[in-house]
Design goal:
This protein has about 290 residues and is α/β, with parallel strands linked by helices. The protein is about 35% helix and about 20% strand. The strands form 2 sheets. A 7-stranded mixed beta sheet has the order 1-7-8-9-4-10-11, with helices on both faces.
């Protein structure tokens, strides 16, 4: 099975992607179990003094922040500042050198004795969308549900239709991913992430490779999701316009540190010279705001 980026569908990659799309943090649980897809909740995230290095490159430096339940929180900054690394740590695709992340006040890392069983669901929308070319749109969305036998086939088909309607792609179940535009692929990836009604949904550079029109459509889709979901949303992006439009609050990371956090209006009016420089070079007409 080939992924969208053309890599061979090796078992390790396939398993990581299929598990990572919607992961369950249940310690010592069997993979197939009853899950109430009608129920979800927003989770809070607290990050304390997180550090991560790759060799001599100290990527994250004592990063601390709090993300409130139910909010859309964006982490902005130039490329290479550690935004995506932070996102991977939140979903345990990597481990920090020091520090801790708490989700609903429960530690993500630390010893097994300190970790309690977690009952939240999370999903991730990858930068590349990570759709499988050999599957149809509907098969991509229903992949995790079918692999884990979460519910009966009739209900899976209902969920596929429901989630495609949420992202404005009704009637596209039978299309191949090669027939989709870049913006449509992003929305299919969101629909797939929504299939398990996650408590936490994360986006890695959602506007990457999209033109302004598709970026605007994607922003509108994410905003509309707030009307029908109660989950917490975390976005990492270098696209400040996008972050200002969709976010309740924004944090800027620079040189591995959080240098500012606030609402969109607070970010735009900040006196921080580094943040002001980033704003001026990425959002026209904002310098005098």
């Amino acid at each position: 099975m080939n992924s969208e980026n053309g890599s061979k569908g090796k078992k390790g990659f396939y398993q990581k992607v299929s598990d990572g799309l919607v992961s369950f943090i249940f310690d010592n649980e069997e993979p197939q179990r009853f899950i109430d897809l009608r129920d979800n909740r927003a989770v809070g995230i607290r990050i304390e003094k997180l550090n991560k290095s790759f060799g001599s490159n100290h990527v994250l430096k004592d990063v601390s922040m709090e993300i409130f339940p139910g909010e859309t929180f964006s982490i902005i900054g130039p490329s290479g500042t550690g935004k995506s690394v932070l996102l991977k740590l939140i979903v345990r695709l990597d481990t920090p050198d020091s520090g801790e992340i708490y989700i609903d006040n429960q530690p993500v890392f630390g010893s097994k004795e300190k970790r309690q069983a977690h009952d939240y669901r999370y999903s991730m929308v990858f930068q590349s969308s990570a759709l499988f070319n050999s599957l149809t749109v509907g098969e991509n969305i229903g992949l995790w549900l079918r692999e884990n036998r979460v519910c009966k086939e009739a209900r899976i088909k209902e969920i596929i239709r429901e989630k495609l309607a949420v992202v404005g792609l009704e009637g596209t179940e039978s299309l191949k991913t090669s027939e989709l535009s870049g913006g449509m692929k992003k929305r299919v990836a969101i629909a797939r992430s929504l299939a398990m009604n996650p408590d936490l949904i994360l986006y890695d550079e959602p506007t990457a490779e999209l033109d302004p029109i598709n970026s605007d459509e994607l922003a509108s889709t994410i905003i509309k999701l707030k009307e029908s979901t109660t989950n917490t949303t975390v976005i990492v992006t270098h696209d400040l316009n996008f972050a200002l439009y969709v976010s309740d609050r924004i944090a800027m990371i620079h040189d591995g540190r959080i240098i500012a956090t606030g609402t969109p209006s607070e970010i735009k009016s900040s006196d921080n010279p580094i943040l002001r420089g980033f704003i001026y070079t990425t959002t026209k007409g904002i310098k005098g705001a």
